[in-house]
Amino acid sequence: MKRIAIYGKGGIGKSTTVSNMSAALASKGLTVVQVGCDPKADSTISLRNGQELRPVLDVYREKVKSITLEDMYIRGYGGVICVEAGGPTPGIGCAGRGVAKALELLKEKGAEEKLKPDVMFFDVLGDVVCGGFSMPLRRNYTDAVYVISSGEQMAIHAAMNLGLAMDNFKRRGHNGLEGIIGNKRNVPDEDEKLLQLSEDLECPIVQILEYSEVVKKASDQGLTVCQAFPGDPVIDSYVSLAEKLMGQKL
After folding, report:
1. Which among 42, 58, 127, 143 is annotated as catalytic?
2. 46, 165, 208, 242: which could join 182 in a potential S-S bond, CB 3.0 to 4.6 Å?
3. How far is 138 from 144, CA to CA, in rounded Å?
4. Which pLDDT band, with edges at 50, 70 and 90, does 140 fall under?
5. What structural domains and CATH numbers belong to the chain?
6. 40 an active-site residue?
7. What is the pLDDT of residue 94?
């Protein structure tokens, strides 16, 4: 079982990428858990096809010690196990602490042992790495950490900051940055900018996902490509990326 955390600037297509990987792997018969580590609780929305999922923190506030593992997830498209950490009441409390509490509850309730996933994806809000948002960098939660970026200036800037923060965590014995996932937006000189980011962070590019209208159309429908356009060749790019992150051929 591989536990993979993916960070990136908000709006960069991180959740879209993770959800498409989850769906593609599930279609190959793998057991996949996707954990959204964002107070907006929208990481798994394209996998749920409109099905409601109460964030872990909302359920915890109601049930406290009586919360069960089954309270924390639903099964979405292809059987993907969908979890949303959620966040505090707006204007009250720390979003990072909320994520930390949700991950602690999953571990406490034996999510890995009971669900027996082949892969767990942690989709982490990545404009900053602080508080609970740093939890997936710790080795007892994840095995590898990646950052996703386009060639847009703000995405590159966020990826640089994330990479530097992760380097500090690595020096303290936690996970460092394993690689960069390029998610192209068709901006000028995008390949060159992503290569420069790789050089600056001294970290390899795992794969570059080309801009795709098919992915956009599926996302606009609130679906993954697997569900909206089954058999489309772009699905293969998500399988290829997942194979690289997992370190195995499927």
Report:
1. 127
2. 208
3. 9
4. confident
5. 2-246 (3.40.50.300)
6. yes
7. 60
Q: Examine the residue annotation and report whether 184 is marked as an active-site residue of this protein.
A: no
pTM of structure:
0.94
- pLDDT recorded at residue 174: 85
- The model's pLDDT over 174-233, given as tens digits with 9 standing for 90+, comes to 888 999 999 999 999 999 999 999 999 999 999 999 999 999 999 999 999 999 999 999
Distance (Å, whole) CA 1 – CA 68: 22
Q: Is 193 a catalytic residue?
A: no
Amino acid letter, residue 175: N
From 2, 40, 217, 244, active-site residue: 40
The per-residue pLDDT of the chain, averaged, comes to 91
Say whether 217 is catalytic.
no
Which two tokens mark 74? 């639903």
Q: Is 122 exposed, middle or buried (0-12, 13-18, 19+ CB in 10 A)?
A: buried
CB 1 within 8 A of CB 141: no
